[in-house]
Amino acid sequence: MTTITHPPAPAGTSPDVMRRTSLAAGILYLLTFVSIPTLAIFQPVRERAGFILGAGSDSGVLWGAFSEVVVALAGIGTAVVLYPVAKRVSETAALGFVTARVLEGALIISGVVSVLSVLTLRNDVAGTPGADEASLLTAGHTLAATYEWTFLLSQSLMPAFNALFLGFVMYRSGLVPRILPLLGLIGAPLLLAADSAIFFGVFDRTGPIALAALPIAVWEFSLGVYLTVKGFRPAAVAALASARSPR
Prior knowledge:
The protein is an all-alpha fold. It has one domain (15-238). 72% of the residues lie in helices and 0% in strands. It has helices spanning 15-31, 38-41, 43-47, 59-86, 91-124, 133-156, 158-173, 179-199, 209-229, 234-242. Helix 1 runs antiparallel to helix 4 (59-86) and helix 1 (15-31) packs antiparallel against helix 9. The chain starts with 14 loop residues before the first helix and ends in a 5-residue tail after the last helix.
């Protein structure tokens, strides 16, 4: 009598492991939305010249900076958690997603440093006798501009690349309903076009950028909710477990 044996599923593709992975990724994705109020919170730093001279409160800015650090770490966390799954679909896309997330996180923290530097100047320099107010205002404008550009390159530009890499993985594997990654794959070129127009001065960041970013925001939020509540689709998990690792 001949016994047919089937090779074991690759490590990390069992239903329990995949559910823990999807839950962790979903929660981290939802955490990346905690900084939504940041633009309003940072408005005094970005638009009020007198902020660096002592006008206004520090507490809101500190909480905004803290929330952006959380976003940076949570974003990197999504890539780290999903990498073992994504690489079974496409190693290139998986590495691209990790790289884009790490770069996004680094740029976000760079922007936070510029905002915290404004607080340091207003608390340690602005109130001292003989402080040069004109120089402080120039420094404040410079640091505010640094934040504006790092925001454009991090939380506006990088999500488009994230959507292209992870959207490809999720669409190809069917781990989530394909309508979700399709939103990201459609929204990515729209956001890239809008960011490029801002970069070259075609229009201001307060213009159509919000509409261009909407499909990516819906994609990321819906992915976070789906992974947290339902997890990866069982049929896709089974297919992934039986498939050979891509080269």
